[in-house]
Amino acid sequence: MEQLEPGFDIPALPGWREDQVQTPALVVDLDALEANVARMAAAARAAGVALRPHGKMHKSADVARMQIAAGAVGLCCQKVSEAEAFVRAGVTDVLVTNQIVDPAKIDRLARLAGVAAVGVCVDALANVADLSAACQRHNTTLRVLVEVDTGQGRCGVETPEQAEALARAILAAPGLAFGGVQAYQGAMQHLATHAERRAAFEASQARLVPVLAALRAAGIDCPTVTGGGTGSWQFEAASGIWTELQCGSYAFMDADYGCIAGATGQRLDSEWQNALFVLAQVISVAAGRAVVDAGLKAMSGESGVPLVAGGLVCTGLSDEHATIADTDGRLRLGDRIRLVPGHCDPTVNLHDWMVATRGGVVQALWPVTARGKVF
């Protein structure tokens, strides 16, 4: 079969200039990404906590390898298929920060534990028995963490008594190893001010402390307390309680995270660099506006419209287009512009490839390893 040229099956080749990349394309700025990865790794080391970045954000084995080379202990995943994709790509330590209850998925997870260090979260006793049975069938061991609801109102146990009962069940179950506690509060990550996030963190911590006290009183060692995100990691890192951070978006950043205030009151995108962009091309111009070829099929819109490089403003998104206000007539047909998507995680999942650039020149083409791995 004749191999297709770039533009048919891939958006770019190494050595191309950015203005040659076929649009819309997912572009990663390597200088910004490397700086973000190094900064978070150094911050975790300085705080004496482990870093386990969330792979659901970037879904990329190439980014994962960069993070692990910088000191990350492994990855978080959200789904079994996602964990499988990363393990196939060479990641040897994954934690599924989710409840897995379907028998077929439990079986796959137990088998995966035969080739990598695999962890999973639980909040129900019945789940413990099912995980144990699968591990006994495959002669493998899963690391199992008790998830605690620290204020998000999603998954997790709500009382110290429930946490202790689950921990005892895990310790008694063949094929399972008690891994500690999952304590992630996602709802506080995007609160607008540092003070609001601190208050939410303190409330979250107040729900966790009695759980850990109950485990200690029962003589149960808690090897890991894992959680924290890009909006709150400084609190968990300084707490003396959390032992592991699960930040994800820091590596790429997005418009939603960028607009919240950091500790100094400045926007978070002044502390972390935007490394992820949707590259779009101007395909139509009219008085006061321009239209580009990247819409909701190229970027997530649930967190709002993208930021536009150069100070322009996006005024709307549809399936295949974004409209840019251009009262000064700065944009011309064929121009390429970088858009910072509102939410990086679902945006990445829309693309097959990341175009890694440095100084406006394509350095590499990275497959989105776990694209579509949502089961």
Can you describe this structure?
The chain is an alpha/beta fold. The chain has two domains: 18-27 and 270-367, D-serine dehydratase-like domain (Lyase, Ornithine Decarboxylase, Chain A, domain 1); 30-254, Alanine racemase (TIM Barrel), CATH 3.20.20. Helices cover 31% and strands 23% of the residues. The protein has eleven helices and 17 strands. It has helices at 30-47, 55-58, 61-69, 80-88, 103-112, 125-138, 160-172, 194-217, 233-238, 255-258, 344-348, and strands spanning 25-29, 50-51, 75-77, 93-99, 117-122, 142-147, 176-182, 225-227, 244-245, 276-286, 288-292, 307-308, 313-317, 322-326, 336-340, 353-358, 361-367. Strands 1, 10, 11, 12, 13, 14, 15, 16 and 17 form a nine-stranded mixed sheet that branches. It has an eight-stranded parallel sheet with strand order 2-9-8-7-6-5-4-3. Helix 6 (125-138) links the parallel strand 5 (117-122) and strand 6 (142-147).
Give the SSE map:
Elements: E1 25-29, H1 30-47, E2 50-51, H2 55-58, H3 61-69, E3 75-77, H4 80-88, E4 93-99, H5 103-112, E5 117-122, H6 125-138, E6 142-147, H7 160-172, E7 176-182, H8 194-217, E8 225-227, H9 233-238, E9 244-245, H10 255-258, E10 276-286, E11 288-292, E12 307-308, E13 313-317, E14 322-326, E15 336-340, H11 344-348, E16 353-358, E17 361-367
